[in-house]
Design goal:
Length: about 260
C-alpha cells in the first residue's frame, strides 16, 4: 500500500490545525472541566471540528475517533483516523508552548501513519511505515546512548506512578539515569524520537494520546508500546525508548 498520500494529508492537516490553535494560544483562554476532570477549551473543540471536516471531505468512508467528539464509524473499511486536537491542554491554558496536535491513521488496527505538530515551536514530527521519520524537513533517529547513567528520561506527572510497583519503576529510573524531567505529554515522546532524550514513560494514556507514535518509532529506530514489550498504541500505557536501552528498560518495567 502506498502510504505517501496519507502521510502528506496527515502532515498538512496537523500543521493547519496547529495554526488554528495559535489563534487562541497565550491569550488567557477560558476552559471547562469534563466529566473526567480534565480541561477543555474552545481551541480543543475548534481544532477537532476542523480536522474532522477535512477527513470527512477527503476520506468520507473512513472511521474517525477524537478526544472531544467521540467515534464515527466507517463504512466497513480498515481505516480509522485518531485525533487529539490539543495534547497538553493544561500546558496550553497556561501559555506553555509544549502542547501538540496529534493525528494517527490505523489500517486494520495498526497505526501506520502519524503526525505530531507542535505549533508554538514550529515543529512537525511525522512518519509512515517505510517512509522514514521526519521533523520538519530533516530525517530523525533515536539516540545511540546505551548506558543508563547517560540517559535522559521524561514523563508527564509523577501522580500516575502512585501505586507501589509503578512508583518503584519511577524511582529506579531516577536513580539509574543521568536526569529525569517532567517534559511531558507528546513533547517528551518527541524528544526521544529525535534523539534528545532516551526514555519516555507514561503509566496511563488514552488512545488519542499516542496514536501517531508507533510508525514514528519504527522508522526512527526505537521502541514504542506497552511496559511489557508489546508494540503499539492500544495498551493504555506508553513507553518510548531508543533501541540501545530498550532491553534494559523493559527488564525494569516488565516487573510491574
Amino acid at each position: 500500500m502506498n502510504l505517501q498520500p496519507y502521510l502528506d494529508f496527515a502532515r498538512q492537516l496537523a500543521c493547519d490545525a496547529g495554526k488554528l490553535t495559535l489563534e487562541y494560544f497565550d491569550k488567557s483562554i477560558r476552559h471547562d472541566m469534563k466529566a473526567d476532570e480534565t480541561p477543555v477549551t474552545a481551541a480543543d473543540r475548534a481544532a477537532e471540528e476542523f480536522i474532522r471536516r477535512a477527513i470527512e471531505q477527503k476520506y468520507p468512508s473512513h472511521a474517525i475517533v477524537g478526544e472531544e467528539y467521540g467515534e464515527k464509524a466507517g463504512e466497513g473499511k480498515p481505516f480509522r483516523w485518531i485525533i487529539d486536537p490539543i495534547d497538553g491542554t493544561k500546558s496550553f491554558i497556561k501559555g506553555v508552548p509544549l502542547y501538540s496536535v496529534l493525528i494517527g491513521l490505523e489500517i486494520e488496527g495498526v497505526s501506520r501513519v502519524g503526525a505530531a505538530c507542535f505549533p508554538a515551536l514550529d515543529r512537525i514530527l511525522y512518519a509512515a511505515d517505510g517512509l522514514g521519520a521526519w521533523c520538519n524537513e530533516t530525517r530523525v533517529h533515536v539516540s545511540e546512548i546505551s548506558e543508563m547513567r547517560k540517559a535522559v528520561f521524561t514523563f508527564t506527572s509523577w501522580s500516575g506512578f502512585r501505586t507501589r510497583t509503578r512508583l518503584d519503576v519511577f524511582e529506579s529510573l531516577h536513580r539509574a539515569c543521568f536526569i529525569g524531567r517532567g517534559w511531558g505529554d507528546a513533547y517528551g515522546i518527541y524528544l526521544v524520537a529525535t534523539g534528545r532524550a532516551e526514555i519516555h514513560i507514561e503509566p496511563s494514556v488514552a488512545l488519542w494520546d499516542v496514536a501517531p507514535f508507533p510508525p514514528i518509532f519504527r522508522e526512527a529506530g526505537g521502541y514504542f508500546g506497552s511496559w511489557g514489550g508489546d508494540e503499539g498504541h492500544t495498551h493504555g500505557e506508553a513507553l518510548a525508548i531508543n533501541a540501545a536501552l530498550a532491553p534494559k528498560v523493559l527488564e525494569l518495567t516488565r516487573r510491574v
